[in-house]
Amino acid sequence: MIDERIEEQAAMFVLGALSPAEAAEFSRALQSDPALREYVARLNKGAAAVAGNVPLVTPPPQLRAKILAQVAPQKIVSLPPRKFRPSSWLPWALAAGFAVLCIVLNVQDAQLRQTVIGQARRIGDLQQLADSLSSVTNDLQQSVLALQKTNRLASLKIAMLNSLLAEAPRTVAVSLWDEANQEGVFVVQNLKSLPADRDYQLWVLDNGTTPVDAGVFHVNENGGVRVDFKTKQPIKVAGRFAVTEEVKGGVPSPTIKNMVLASN
Amino acid sequence: MSSGAQINFVQFAPFGGENPAGHELFLTKPVNEQEAKDRDIELLRQIAAGDRTAFAEFYDRHSTLMFSIASRILNDPGEAEDVLQVVFLQIWETAGKFDAEIGKASSWAATLVRNKAIDRIRASQRRMRLAEESGVEQAIAAEAPDSANDTIYGRDKAQVIQSVIVGLPEDQRRAIELAYFSGLTQEEISKKLNEPLGTIKARIRRGLLKLRDQLEGLL
Prior knowledge:
The structure holds 2 protein chains of 2 kinds. Chain A is of the alpha+beta class. Among the domains of chain A are: 4-52, no CATH class; 136-263, Immunoglobulin-like, CATH 2.60.40. Chain A is 42% helix and 22% strand. Chain A has 5 helices and 8 strands; from the N terminus they run H-H-H-H-H-E-E-E-E-E-E-E-E. Chain A has an 8-stranded antiparallel sheet, covered by helices on one side. Mean pLDDT of chain A is 78; it is low at 74-90. Chain B has helices at residues 33-48, 52-74, 77-94, 105-123, 127-134, 149-153, 155-166, 170-182, 186-193, 197-215. Chain B has 10 helices and no strands. By secondary structure, chain B is mostly helical. Chain B starts with 32 loop residues before the first helix and ends with a helix. Chain B has 2 domains: 32-125, Orthogonal Bundle (Rna Polymerase Sigma Factor, Chain: A); 127-219, Winged helix-like DNA-binding domain superfamily/Winged helix DNA-binding domain (Arc Repressor Mutant, subunit A). At the A-B interface, helix 1, helix 3, helix 4 and strand 5 of A face helix 2, helix 3, helix 4, helix 6 and helix 7 of B.
């Protein structure tokens, strides 16, 4: 018997209205409660009906090929046919036991292979991220050294910009702003290249709210660039930094929905 | 150049259309649910083993539903495309985690795309604004000429589903759609509708129970 409070939590869960912490807690409860799993499965049908009751929009035809091109090539593993030896006098029980053992080993082998592939992929991703961060760090060290020489570090604002794109979590950027001289340095890694008719545009948010144009830039083939920039208007307090994708040459006001990077 | 940010939040276009009540309730194109469900489970099993052909078939079976949901939430074809790409790659990577016990593959795929679209809205900090400006409460209130459910259940069955949804009490339907399409948490829905949290929870629960009971045997 599921009490009303849990039913309410289940309803919120299937609609995605629980906070991440609540959803995680509910997921744990779900794992150990078969009755709750069955209840959620039935509620899910209602949620699915709601989800699908939206206007039919067909994806563009080229999207299919684009997505398929991004997944790894198919691996076809051909296994040699197992030979049957009618003259064998092994007991049937032993044969059956051997077959079961083969199945178990095959399953374990497949699972192990998946785990190894997954771990190798994660190690590769982490290596790439480490390389990126190392590159950004080197650029920043150079910038800080240059600023130390001119005794400008005291008025320096340093901010890390995080990616807002779910598909580009490895994009990292750092902005340094020298308030006294009203100039800055911006370094980014792993930002996707844009077509020729588009530009990235850097913004300094004066007092953290008013966006001031700091110029446009393109990234190199590795998704990186270092930009020495000045703003179009004086900055009182460089509260935050942001990058948007805009039409070539930039725009007077940032297009919020095209924001790709932002600092806290 | 300094300027106040011109935040051009997109708006959801409300549905127009008729209530299909009175529509003849039989299937002109029956869909064998169990066969479809079994096929999806098999496809996901093959995808987990790295089978691109199965992946392509899964795309063909579910991409329209998923793109329709992403388009409804984001109201931007480009962003919907981006989300679809991300979610299909997620399916490629995590197909083995699908749990057939707690729902169909189409529901799982719909949830993945819904969550990713909501993440995107949250990332750009426009969720509350979208919910306020969109009139999202009409999102499931009235009939669209063709709904994404057509691709899953067939036209006639989809119309029955729609009539059941439209038949929900207004306050229950509104709370459900705010939760699903705007990605608001229960506390945020309570605040937006200026109703106690307990009332919102009860409304959503009752609404979903009604959907479950009335669609039992149909889905």
